[in-house]
Amino acid sequence: MEFLDLPQLLSAAGIVRLPGSKSISNRVLLLAALAEGETEVCDLLASDDTERMLEALRALGIGVAHLGGENWRISGCAGRIPVRQAELFLGNAGTAFRPMTAALALAGGDYVLKGVARMHERPIGDLVDGLRQLGADIAYLGNEGYPPLHLRPGSIHSGGVLRVRGDVSSQFLTGLLMALPLTGEVATVEVVGELISKPYIEITLATMARFGVVVQREGWQRFTVPAGSRYRSPGTVYVEGDASSASYFLALGAIGGGPVRVEGVGGDSIQGDVKFAEALAQMGARIETGPNWMSARAPVGDLVAVDLDCNHIPDAAMTLATAALFAKGTTMLRNIASWRVKETDRIAAMATELRKLGAVVEEGADFIRVTPAILRPAAIDTYDDHRMAMCFSLAAFGTPLRINDPQCVAKTFPDYFDRFAAVTRAAPVIAIDGPSASGKGTVAARVAAALGYAYLDSGALYRLTALAARRAGVDWADEPAVAAIATGLEVTFSENDVCLQGVPVGDAIRTEEISAGASQVAALPAVRAALLFRQRAFNTAPGLVGDGRDMGSVVFPRAPLKVFLTATAEARAERRYKQLIEKGFSANLPALLLDLQQRDARDSGRSVAPLRQEADAKLLDTTSLTIEEAVDQVLRWSRESAL
Ligand code: DC
What we know:
Blueprint: E1 3-6, E2 9-17, H1 22-34, E3 38-42, H2 48-59, E4 63-68, E5 71-75, E6 85-89, H3 94-107, E7 110-114, H4 125-132, E8 137-140, E9 149-152, E10 161-165, H5 170-179, E11 187-192, H6 198-210, E12 216-218, E13 222-225, E14 236-238, H7 243-255, E15 257-263, H8 276-282, E16 286-289, E17 293-297, E18 303-304, E19 307-309, H9 314-323, E20 327-328, E21 331-334, H10 346-356, E22 360-363, E23 368-371, E24 379-380, H11 386-393, E25 401-404, H12 416-423, E26 424-426, E27 429-433, H13 440-451, E28 454-457, H14 458-471, H15 479-488, E29 491-493, E30 498-500, E31 503-504, H16 512-521, H17 525-536, E32 544-548, H18 551-555, E33 561-566, H19 569-582, H20 589-605, E34 618-621, H21 627-640
Parallel strand pairs: 2-15, 3-14, 6-7, 10-11, 18-20, 19-21, 24-25, 27-32, 27-33, 28-32, 33-34
Antiparallel strand pairs: 1-25, 2-26, 3-5, 4-5, 7-9, 8-9, 11-13, 12-13, 15-17, 16-17, 21-23, 22-23, 29-30, 30-31
């Protein structure tokens, strides 16, 4: 399984430009084409569906100019499509095919509309029936009720009441409504059946209003387009980003200091989820909004828990559940029964994963109640649900954590974690690697103490694994069995000692026998994999100094400071010799030297995570340095790296 390990975060600030919403992109393009005047369309979503729409508009003689980036200029035709005869290919873009059918049927030309095979399996009969009530001349070129279509100039009349089904696809109603102003006469659409996807109709009505046509609405049953309605360019239109996606970044700003500013969704958004910002403000976040942006900063004091009915923001409310981990008190999210029937049972999934982190969670049929706690590292499952992955990224403010299957974010936000990394600052790591007895342990521990950072003696984990295996009677060469021991290792690091199953191990992991065993088990890939997250879980605030063999290459490849600390084998053997003699042990210098050389060869020669100096690691040769001099050098480098 793929996974992404997140270090604990220190802060968040920056600007995130959200990808545009597909639904809004294609609506805006069509209305800009039908409008009077030129429209600058900014932040258009770059996707297959918008490409098809742009191609179709060009084929119809509409002026389409790419202004660079995601910005386009559409020269509107004021309802008179320049090319009266054309064959259009619209791929599999439902958001292009349905509204384009309606507009061209009423515009009065000779057009053939086609798509990919799958598009020819998607029903369009209800829309065609609606258009025929207005006198449109539409023929099916394939199966009755499905594309491809042949549209010919009809004798369009209006003034009456049209009926269209609302329970199959809201795109039929959207298509009709967007096309009706082309008739210039009053027209009323009556929805037959329960209208589904109402938020999308809201987007349609809001986009039409932006282009000057205000539809009168009676509930969700009757929609009237007034006589004389005409689309007029509003000049510049920003395509909104996905408001639910904005929620993660606003929450990052609210928890991590901020300000985090999202661009692409503003205070006047037509998407319901924008109300998330109000919920965040209720938690104490300082929210600012502008026409095409919103920003969030942390409160002066703490974020506070809320008790909210979240029916109006079902998707974004998930973000509140993980933001609640950083709020004082118990947060109650009510009226969220719809979570149970989304990509996964989101109430159950959220409760299970929040509990893994240590939070206290109560769930009911339609609510979730979250009480924060001191978080502990955990591997979070994402249930093939993009929002689970994005929500749990926020928990990294409390603890390092692992996100399983992070690529599920591709559904709505393929580069989410890149954007996330760009606006967050992780607890820094100083990675110190080097051969046995180079003194890196002593240097690393002293640097950590000087900076107030945590210290990870990664070699101790391999030594503990070897010791635990020996005690369990497991052969050091038995990879699966040793890996199982590494996974289950019950280890705590205290100031002066390491405890295995609560019992201090003292020098038991420092014997020559266990040193040799550690070196042996460290060469087993399954053992290294089992210990990976355990090591990364040390990457907490305010920072970490880790020493070992692969700190800079494998465990913390993004460490802002990497040091390769070494000394000649002779110097190292001599230091070890002196240590042993001082402790009153007998020692043999040539034997120690040979042993070190053998261990060096094994640590450097193994196929997984061999000891080597990374290209971006600074070399610190301590052969002729005192410990103090070595520590001072690392601290100087850490200041230069602005840690
Ligand atoms: O640093 P040390 O001597 O305590 O390490 C004990 C053994 O564990 C050593 O043979 C190398 C191995 N080790 C490793 O492979 N990777 C690490 N990050 C740390 C130690």
